[in-house]
Design brief:
CATH topology of the largest domain: Rossmann fold
Oligomer: single chain
Number of helices: 9
Number of domains: 2
Shape: globular
CATH class of the largest domain: Alpha Beta
Distance between the termini: 59 Å
Largest sheet: 7 strands, parallel
Order of helices and strands: EHEEEHEHEHEHEEEEEEEHEHEHEEH
Radius of gyration: 23 Å
Helix content: 25-40%
Bound molecules: flavin-adenine dinucleotide
């Protein structure tokens, strides 16, 4: 595996000099695979995002896109995951069925995926950079002795058909494009919400290639005794919120966070922050947005008193509309915000809350007088 700093003028030159011959037995590897992750019987949304990205890669390479599902036979979640893979763009699905795969355990999942790869020889294998995906991708890559690029923010196919997997490096100050030159499959993990979710197309189907798992329970060291849900996992849904209001050091003191929270609540959004606020202990870590925090993709992102450092930017780049409030008209956030407001956020936040409260009250009133169709 070779890593090169992404410079559009020099990347091809430096990569060409580092090119290693792909061993003959990998030259027939075909197709793009996406591992469909099941979380308590539900497909994790990152799998849909990866199918969207996988579709683009497969079309560029002129190959097929496959969804890979592992789970117990006759399980609603497994069957549903296979159907959803087709609905989100897969041409075919691989299904490994075994009672050993009912809960995530590294050993049987690694065995299922590596056996499948050895048999069907994909060119590219993508997984979500979730807790499960990170654990599984690492063990599959090491078992297969192939290259894995973790936490990618961009995936592309080079002129010669190699996967160009780009991810932030050196604390986010550089983007690095990594190639797997001499082994297959080329593996990558992508964080949830980094890629867009493709349109779901109902009533789609395709071939399903079924396999069993050649493993017995006695070979599995890990035993699942029970499942305790994370007490806090229900609390924050920043990654999937449509509206996010976030604050940075520019909000001054911890007490001013209340202004942020009230505005977020008024407009039906979540609230978040830049990293220094977590470091100060003003907000919980699961509200941090950015490279070492959450990646978000809201319809509206309102950033108050945030400078727009690259480590923050990578977490919000997918937002449809970015509104930034900053006293400094040269703040870097204005380079990528769609709406730039040069103002004191501490005064503007409550003014926005008042304006939205009024506007929403008027809207409710008019809806009561003229109810919408179907109400
Ligand atoms: C390895 C690594 C990982 C990192 N990961 C993350 C990450 O995940 N997320 C993240 O956010 N950061 C991350 N950082 C930190 C990042 O580099 C920045 O330091 C951080 O984002 C800056 O936070 P800020 O914008 O709140 O503060 P500052 O950069 O200090 O910006 C404050 C801004 O507020 C403005 N301002 C001041 N007063 C007001 C006012 N009254 N009204 C309006 N605006 C005002 C200022 O003009 C300034 O632009 C990481 C850094 C490293 C090295």
């Amino acid at each position: 595996m070779e890593a090169h700093v992404a410079d559009p003028r020099s990347a091809n030159v430096s990569r060409a000099s580092a090119r290693k011959e792909l061993p003959k037995h990998f030259r027939h590897n075909r197709n793009v695979w996406v591992f469909i992750e099941l979380e308590r019987g539900q497909v994790h949304p990152v799998s849909f995002e990866l199918l969207g990205e996988g579709r683009k890669l497969a079309d560029k390479l002129g190959v097929q896109l496959a969804g890979v599902v592992v789970g117990p036979a006759e399980c609603a979640g497994t069957q549903c995951a296979t159907a959803e893979a087709f609905a989100y763009g897969a041409d075919l699905a691989y299904l490994v069925e075994s009672p050993l795969l009912s809960h995530y355990r590294n050993e049987p999942f690694t065995k299922a995926l590596t056996d499948l790869v050895i048999l069907h020889k994909p060119e590219i294998l993508l997984l979500g950079a979730t807790s499960l995906g990170r654990d599984l991708a690492g063990s599959v890559a090491t078992t297969l002795e192939t290259g894995l690029t973790a936490d990618c923010t961009e995936l592309n196919v080079d002129a010669d058909g190699s996967l160009a997997a780009t991810r932030p490096t050196f604390g986010g100050s550089l983007l690095c494009t990594i190639y797997t030159l001499n082994s297959r499959p080329q593996m990558a993990t992508v964080r949830p919400r980094v890629m867009a979710t493709p349109q779901r197309v109902a009533d789609t189907a395709g071939p399903i290639i079924r396999h069993g798992l050649i493993m017995v329970e006695e070979e599995v060291v890990t035993k699942v005794l029970g499942f305790l849900s994370d007490r806090r996992s229900e609390k924050v849904n920043l990654a999937h919120a449509d509206i996010v209001v976030a604050g940075g050091l520019g909000i001054g003191i911890a007490e001013n966070l209340e202004r942020l929270k009230v505005l977020a609540k008024t407009i039906g959004g979540e609230f978040g922050c830049s990293r220094p606020l977590v470091q100060k202990g003003w907000m919980e870590v699961d509200r941090q947005i950015g490279q070492t925090g959450q990646t978000i993709r809201p319809k509206l992102y309102l950033a108050a008193g945030i400078s727009g450092a690259v480590q923050h930017r990578v977490g919000v780049d997918g937002a449809d509309l970015i509104v930034a409030i900053n006293t400094d008209s040269n703040a870097p956030i204005f380079d990528f915000a769609h709406v730039a407001v040069v103002a004191d956020a501490i005064g503007l936040l409550p003014a926005l809350t008042t304006a939205f409260t009024r506007r929403l009250a008027l809207q409710t009133k008019s809806e009561q007088v003229n109810p919408r169709c179907g109400q």
